[in-house]
Amino acid sequence: MTKIDVFAHVLLPDFYQKMLMLDKDLVQKMPFIQNPVLTDMDKRRATMPADTKQIISYVNANPEDYMAGKMAALLVTKANVELLETVKANSDIFAGGVAMLAMNNIPEAVRVIKEFIPAHPEILGVQLFSRHLGKSLADEDFRPVFEALAETDTPAWLHPVFDERKPDNNIVFSWEYELTQTMLELVQANYFQDFPNLKIIVHHAGAMAPYFAGRIDHILPESQAADFRKFYVDTALLGNSKALELCVDYYGVERVLFGTDAPLGIMPAGAGDVISEAIQALPLTQEEKNTIFYQNAQDLLGLD
Question: One Pfam family name from the record (predicted)?
């Protein structure tokens, strides 16, 4: 059986060096990027599980936070080409890539969705962050991106970032809150009503949503509570089978995709083994587990 890991990260060498030129303190701000498996594909290959193919996206370092829109979009374009070339050169271990966007240049972000991705089937969608440029992802300025995603039937991967307005951000809990808050904002902006075919894959098993299902169902209007279940989610919980069981109960087997956050979480290669064990421990049939391990990704992303 081949597993498809839908949420795995890279920090490819050329892009990494350009980001270090923009921010000499990047490593201090994001110590996890020192993991060489993010950058060195030979080391990546040596640590890859034999039965897994990954879909790769960049870690949360975005040129839009350092450069004006024209220059940010130019650097993002180069990063996306480097990602494309990496997927092509390593197609035995990578099932595809996820493009980066510069959200301070919306016309170029839309061009990536409407032109770059259709021209390159190895690129399966785009990565969005819980906040961009200090604003909610549901900010009206970003709406054209969602219109383009819906028009082209392009999936989005949702990754958290810290809300810099908060003084107590931490890697244990803050990102899960940020994901959940962003999901709420997208639902309350009626994006699933306006764009019925919108496909968003949320990192970390849908964050807080499965565990606060009662509050969602009883506090939100019925249509918005239903929309909360329209997200797709991965399994990146560092194990924790009981939590995954709640996730599957809430979203349904058909919306849960194997994803590990590799190579992060457990050094050096990530948490693939413990997450696989947690899925195997779920009270599901093997067919349902296989649906999570690879079938949902194949169906959602049009993979062979």
Answer: Amidohydro_2
Does the structure show a pLDDT above 90 at 253? yes
Quick one: tokens of 12? 């490819």
CA-CA-CA-CA torsion sign (299, 4, 252, 264): negative
Whether 196 has a pLDDT exceeding 70, the answer reads yes
* Both tokens assigned to 238: 């560092």
User: Helix %, strand %, coil % for the chain, to 5?
Assistant: 50, 15, 35
Is 1's pLDDT higher than 60?
A: no
| CB contact burial 192-207 (16+ within 10 A = b; e otherwise) | beeeeebbbbbbbbbb
What is d(CA 124, CA 141) in angstroms, rounded to the nearest whole number?
A: 24
40 CB burial (10 A radius; 0-12, 13-18, 19+): middle
Distance CA 133, CA 250 (A): 31
Query: Residues near 246 by Cβ (< 8 Å), separated by ≥ 6?
Result: 210, 211
Q: Helices 241-251 and 272-280, interaxial angle, to 10°?
A: 60
Q: Both tokens of residue 180?
A: 């959940």
Q: How far apart are CA 94 and CA 79, in angstroms?
A: 17
CA 159, 164, 166, 168 torsion: positive or negative? positive
Angle at 211 between CA 287 and CA 52, to 5 degrees: 35
Give the list of residues 6+ apart from residue 82 with CB closer than 8 angstroms, or none. 12, 14, 15
Structural domains of the chain, ranges and CATH numbers in brackets: 3-301 (3.20.20.140)
Cis omega (within 30 of 0) for bond into 160: no
Phi, psi of 95 (to 5 degrees): -85, -15
Q: Kindly tell me the burial class for residue 174, based on how many C-beta atoms sit within 10 Å of its own C-beta (0-12, 13-18, 19 or more).
A: middle
